[in-house]
Amino acid sequence: MGGRILILGLWIGGALLGVRSWVGSSLGIGPQPSNSCVNCHQGITTPLELSQRYYDWHLSVHKERGVTCDACHGGDSQARAVQEAHRGIFPSSDERSRVHGKTQVETCGACHPEVRAAYVASAHYVKLGSTGLGPFCSTCHLNMANSTVRSAADIGALCSRCHGAEGGLLPPNPQLLKNAQETLLSLSRANGVLIWADRLVEAAQEKRLDVAGEVRDLEAARRLLAEAKWEWHAFRFEPVRAKADRAFEQGTKVKDRLMQKVYPGPRL
Ligand code: HEC
Ligand code: HEC
Ligand code: HEC
Ligand code: HEC
Ligand code: HEC
């Protein structure tokens, strides 16, 4: 990898803080008493940008699964003093940071190997990986991966930064944007029908109906959708769409069977 660094303002992620206005008064007692990052940061109320970061994490799947700050940022989660705890932590704009554009693929990829494998095969990684230019993980999984850019409009804006702008980095490519948007819609539709089916399974179990076969088929559809999501990260959309649509079809069949069991009788 050639260490060429392009300092373009393409990425609008975590611009932060010339300010150090925090007062060190909050080594409070928290839900994870052994993790000093969480303990200290949950009590920080100023500056706003820093405080908000805690809440981004607090409402994330990572918090739910016990993936604490140090898992992504590094540092020493046993040390109580700031300087010691922060040893090895750099702002995300610094190439040494574990959450810099160049390093995210390894940091996040350590726990998400299937996504990593697809991503490193993408044109983006091959052509842009060594520059740290987007789109990398946090470009789409905003704010420390507590949400995902899903809407067609958002993804359009995001990809347009390089693929849509007149006089931009690359020739405008409306077809590419359209494919990306449709692929997202088809992932989203498959998500939707599986959630519907999950609710019906719950309803069936409340009524003590036997839905073992449906649960099994639902798992197969879920697996297919998970693979489609992993493969999305290679940015080759046709196979992803095909898989997502198959997951949708299978999910729809299971959903319809469940409807018949849970709410038998004629349909309108
Ligand atoms: C899943 C990995 C992950 C976890 C867990 C995580 N972060 Fe982050 N964090 C990131 C990434 C990636 C960025 C840079 C991208 C961005 O701006 O969102 C970031 C940015 C930040 C920033 C902005 C400063 C900068 O360097 O850009 C702060 C402050 C921060 N995180 C604090 C925390 C705190 C405090 C916790 C725990 C309560 C935490 N993070 C947990 C991945 C994570
Ligand atoms: C005793 C309190 C305390 C502890 C412990 C602590 N932090 Fe911080 N952290 C702060 C304060 C205060 C700031 C803002 C000022 C600064 O950067 O020193 C901050 C800033 C940060 C930033 C933003 C850095 C930047 O350059 O923008 C990150 C990321 C971060 N902490 C992560 C962590 C992680 C990960 C841990 C655990 C390994 C941790 N912190 C432990 C108080 C703490
Ligand atoms: C220490 C392991 C670990 C690290 C590091 C990590 N994650 Fe995760 N992540 C998990 C676990 C566990 C889950 C929940 C189970 C799952 O969906 O795989 C998860 C879930 C997710 C999800 C799904 C969220 C949802 O709403 O379902 C996304 C997206 C994600 N991580 C992105 C990232 C990104 C981006 C990074 C790096 C900035 C990262 N992860 C770093 C362990 C990790
Ligand atoms: C161009 C946008 C984009 C980029 C870049 C991106 N992702 Fe994703 N990611 C998505 C979308 C869209 C989904 C599907 C979300 C959904 O429908 O639930 C997703 C799903 C995921 C999931 C959940 C998979 C599952 O089984 O549910 C994980 C984990 C994840 N991404 C991690 C990463 C990591 C790690 C990186 C960087 C190597 C990354 N993503 C880069 C858009 C992106
Ligand atoms: C930072 C700039 C940048 C952003 C943002 C970006 N791309 Fe790219 N993309 C590139 C570059 C550079 C290439 C490689 C072009 C080449 O090989 O000629 C590429 C290649 C691709 C390719 C392969 C095209 C081909 O002909 O092989 C696809 C598909 C793609 N991008 C989709 C997307 C999508 C979808 C988004 C939005 C989520 C996006 N890109 C955002 C810079 C970017």
The main β sheet shows up as: none
Low-confidence stretches: 1-32
Tell me what portion of residues adopts beta-strand conformation: under 5%
The helix fraction, in percent, is 55-70%
List keywords for this structure.
single chain; 268 residues; mainly alpha; 3 domains; 14 helices; globular; binds heme C
Question: In terms of topology, how is this protein built?
Answer:
Blueprint: H1 36-41, H2 48-58, H3 61-64, H4 69-73, H5 82-85, H6 104-109, H7 113-120, H8 123-128, H9 137-140, H10 142-145, H11 152-163, H12 174-206, H13 212-232, H14 237-262
Helix pairs in contact: 7-13, 11-12, 12-13, 12-14, 13-14
Provide a quick synopsis of the model.
The protein is mainly α and 268 residues long. The protein is built from 14 helices and no strands.
Task: Outline the structure in words.
- The protein has 268 residues and is mainly α.
- The protein has helices at 36-41, 48-58, 61-64, 69-73, 82-85, 104-109, 113-120, 123-128, 137-140, 142-145, 152-163, 174-206, 212-232, 237-262.
- One heme C is lined by residues 10, 123-124, 127-128, 133-135, 155, 158-159, 161-163, 169-170, 176, 180, 235.
